[in-house]
Amino acid sequence: MSTTTPPEIKPGRPVTPQVVAASRIRPTRRRGERGPLGAALMHGGLIVASLIALAPVAWLFFLSLGPDKDDYLHPGKIMGKLSFSNYSFVLQHTAFFDWFKSTMIVALGTTVIGVFVAATTGYAVSRMRFPGYKSLMWVLLLTQAFPIAILIVPMYEIFSDIGLIDTYWSLIVINCTTAVPYSAWLLKGYFDTIPFEIDEAGRVDGLSPFGTFFRLILPLARPGLAVAAFYNFITAVGEVAFATTFMLDDSKYTFAVGLQTFVSQHDAEWNYMAATAVLIAIPVSVFFYLVQKNLVTGLTAGGTKG
Amino acid sequence: MTVAIDRATGKRRGDRAPRPGLGQRIKNGYQKHWYAYAMIAPVVVVLGVIVGYPLVRGLYLTLTDANSLNSARTIGVNHIAATYKYIGFGNYKDILFGPTSYDRFWSHFLWTVFWTAACVALHYTIGLGLALMLNQKLRGRTFYRLMLVLPWAVPTFVTVFSWRIMLADSGVLNQILHSLHLPQPQWLEDTFWQRFAAIMVNTWCGVPFMMLSLLGGLQSIDSTLYEAAEMDGASAWQQFRHVTLPGLRSVSSTVVLLGIIWTFNQFAIIFLLFGPTGAPDAQILVTWAYFLGFGQQPRDFAQSAAYGVLLLSILAVFTSFYFRWLKRNDQLAV
């Protein structure tokens, strides 16, 4: 589905004979084409950038194949003894699957709740102007500015009062506070690109605003929802501060906390850390691959419309 | 693309004209807007309960001397009630003007400002450069895009650990520098290099988001504008200066603001790169506040929350100035 709005029709510049003549005299390339040097430079730049982007992850993967925890100090030795022993150790003798479970519960919980809540809000602020609209947008932006330091202490107090410390709910709720406002912005931008005529047609056919939203707009907004879902998911998976502070039972650690246990002060098991990191990166990258086609269009809508 | 918004503001202009009494206005407003309110209710409730209430409580904490020794806590089966007391603005006075205020607050503040400016500038320029390249008709464009977005797809805590291995004393980066006969900085021990490394890692993590957003912005620029510019004989630089940059204005102003806010509050990278207690001089205000509240014994809840309030105030002031500036230049997309 195309998300670009039909280009505005600009009053065409009159093509005067002089312009035509000028373009005939100078043998210009067609738009989007460039000389071999330009293409080489461009490929060169992109290749270097891709390598830099890839390097830390590739390095981690390489180290995960070396059997000793100090292999990172002399990587040359790894080549001779590549093995998957770190992986089998991590899978069999650590709490990997517990961490996986916690991470998934927290991340999927955040994604489902966050996207749903953000979608209704995004739709409301895209289609309706109501008293309080401006302050709502302002609050949504301002919550992005909330440093964890201001919330983490009172949250800790409140959560321990109501017994939510060390539960998945605590993390889901907290992740929603950061993910929902931004997702709402993103989705507002996306909904703005869906023609109003569709809503009007729905209303004429007797749908309520909620019906229009659920039956017509949500299905059309799937790419936007995918981006919001992705954003919620990676925010939740990557959350460190609250997960570190609120999860006490090591079987409930998320990956962000679990991974830190490999490199505590007295013992740094970098090889297990690397293997675990690779195991974490794979499902996230797969998820990413599934939604990546929608990322650019979705982010654009959110970005350009603010 | 402006159609949608124009129509909506048109509606709004309409219902502004008559101004009946307050009760009537509420009743009218309710009838007219209850759909809208029902739809935003979840967010308002969620934000009110899990941001608003803790915020108020946090504000109160900053006016007390709460720490982990006098707060309510449960040891075994015994519940000990909180005994902290109200001390007015003592915490703020201590943080901003106390005898150790420079070492504790102002030095971190200056570093945080520098860190934010440097990171966002790097994010934006590198992101824009890559987006411009990806926007060309180029073989393998999709492949490059996938590779370049990778740092964003892998969770930050994974890649930060990877950087930690690479930056370690005799890690691969220093081995490469050694083989090139270049000096090998102590990335994770020396203050200057700690800061350098932090900015480098954060740049690496933040570029993909900028790149994707700007790429989207580039793709939404009407291609007839370029054709017209070309007709007029504009050089590549002139096209960039007078078509691309103005066309990116609204997306730029949004992502730069978000970038500044996110970088200013960036917790995970510094926290994980140096460990919970390492590199006191490379800590930005957020991680420093976390250290005060959770990284030391006894935990100083009140000061930690006071840092939080200060941080939020700095950002709120900054954001409103930024908005005013955008409005004056008519760049706001909201």
Automatic annotation (TrEMBL), chain A:
Subcellular location: Cell membrane
Annotated source species: Streptomyces collinus (strain DSM 40733 / Tue 365)
GO molecular function: ABC-type maltose transporter activity
Domain ABC transmembrane type-1 as annotated: residue spans: 100-291
Topology of the protein relative to the lipid bilayer: Multi-pass membrane protein
Protein name: Maltose permease
Transmembrane segments: 39-62, 104-125, 137-156, 168-187, 225-248, 272-291
InterPro entries linked to this entry: BP-dep_ABC_trans_perm, MetI-like, MetI-like_sf
Domain of life from the UniProt record: Bacteria
Any one GO cellular component localisation term in the record: plasma membrane
Species lineage: Bacteria, Bacillati, Actinomycetota, Actinomycetes, Kitasatosporales
Assigned keywords, A-Z: Cell membrane, Membrane, Sugar transport, Transmembrane, Transmembrane helix, Transport
From TrEMBL, chain B:
Region of interest: Disordered: 1-21
GO cellular component labels: plasma membrane
Boundaries of every ABC transmembrane type-1 domain copy: 109-322
TM spans (from-to): 34-56, 109-134, 146-166, 192-215, 255-275, 305-323
Keywords: Cell membrane, Membrane, Transmembrane, Transmembrane helix, Transport
Gene3D superfamilies with a match to the protein in the record: MetI-like
UniProt record, GO biological process: transmembrane transport
Superkingdom of origin: Bacteria
A Pfam family annotated for this UniProt entry: BPD_transp_1
Membrane topology (UniProt): Multi-pass membrane protein
Compartments where found: Cell membrane
Family of the protein in this entry: Belongs to the binding-protein-dependent transport system permease family.
Name under which the protein is recorded: Maltose permease
Organism: Streptomyces collinus (strain DSM 40733 / Tue 365)
